[in-house]
Amino acid sequence: MVVHPSPPADVPGFVEAYRQVLISMVNVCDGLREAEWDLPTDCPGWRVRDHVAHTVHLEDYLSGSEHPVPDEAIEVGSPEHVRNDLGVWMEQGVRSRADVGPEQLVAELRALVEIRSADLYAPDLALDSTVRSVRGSEARFGDLVQLRLCDIWTHEQDIREAVGRPGSLDGAGAAQWTAMVLTALPRVVLRRVAPEPGTVLILESTGPVTGRAGVRIDVDEAGEPVAHELFTGHSAEEGDDVPVTDAGEEATTTISLSTHALARRSAGRASTEDTAYHVHGDEDLARRVLEALTLTR
Fold first, then answer.
1. So what's the pLDDT on residue 90?
2. How many CB atoms lie within 10 A of CB 268?
């Protein structure tokens, strides 16, 4: 898998990327008009303000605060977009700030940029350091920060989409999301699509973040299907050419789409029908892969 610009790979890189995605969300929110805070978004059940409240809740909690449930628990009910206990926990965090005005939400978020940055500049922090995670759990710093980069950036994109202000498509958040999707491709194709052995599928992000991943489906000695990842670190200049199966070049299917289109489809924000993409090869297989490539709720 090759991604450019590359996502962060060490503690300083992750810390700086974390700070960048938070500041980018602050900058978007600073420019919102009053009416825009209540616009619906492509994230089911949430308005623009809910994305900000969600980010403030999680960053505040990760910094050491308690889950903001008052004496009488916040009743979430059974909305369609709340599908599990984690969803209830997050929805409680959003609803706990239902009466907080936009200016205060932005002020909280801005303050949390500095609080979280200070937390993460600890001199002994390592990628495998244990840090606080959601719902009283713990996680490796490297794992948590990758998830936070993806989550914050995706919610920023939800806001930008709702208010018609595209941007932030070439930074660390976009790179981390693209890398996550491309890394997941072999698993998604093998488990969710299950094409015939011999199938070769390539997925390309054409920019601003560029990247590609590929998978070849074979069978093991027991006759079970297995996925072989392609493009494992070699650039095209080094001879990492598009693979061809015994069935010939026509057995290779390539899906190409922009960073924005890939992100909205893989976040479940846009349907396959509403996604602009180009296919070289099996169009039905490409559609099935894109349908299966939803990695969030």
1. 84
2. 16
For residue 157, is pLDDT > 80? yes
- Residue 95 main-chain phi, psi, to 5 deg: -70, -25
Task: Tell how strand 278-280 and strand 210-219 pair up.
Answer: unpaired
pLDDT of residue 126: 95
Contact 29, 54 (CB under 8 A): no
CB 12 within 8 A of CB 118: no
Q: Across the chain, which distance is largest between two alpha carbons, in Å? A: 66
Residue 100 has pLDDT above 80, yes or no: yes
Q: Shortest CA distance to 146 belongs to which of 172, 169, 113, 171? A: 172
Residue 44 has pLDDT above 80, yes or no: yes
Q: Where are the alpha helices (DSSP H) in the chain?
A: 11-30, 48-62, 85-95, 102-120, 141-163, 172-188, 259-266, 283-292
Exposure string over 195-219, b if 16+ CB within 10 A, otherwise e: beeebbbbbbbbebbbbbbbbbbee
Measured in degrees and rounded to the nearest 5, phi and psi for residue 244 equal -130, 130
Please count the CA atoms within 13 angstroms of the CA of 129 that sit on its side-chain side: 15
Q: What confidence tens digit (pLDDT) does each residue in 186-208 have? A: 999 999 999 999 999 999 999 99
Contacts of 109 (CB under 8 A, 6+ apart): 22, 25, 26, 29, 52, 55, 56, 59
DSSP string, 174-226: HHHHHHHHHHHHHHHIIIII---TT-EEEEEEESSSEEEEEEEEEE-TTS-EE
- Percent of the chain predicted with pLDDT > 70: 88
Nearest-10 Cα torsion for 258, 161, 165, 144: -80
Segment 130-150 shows an average pLDDT of 95
Spatial neighbors of 28 by CB under 8 A, at least 6 apart, are 156, 159, 160, 165, 167, 168
Please state, as a whole number, how many other Cβ atoms lie within 10 Å of the Cβ of residue 110. 16
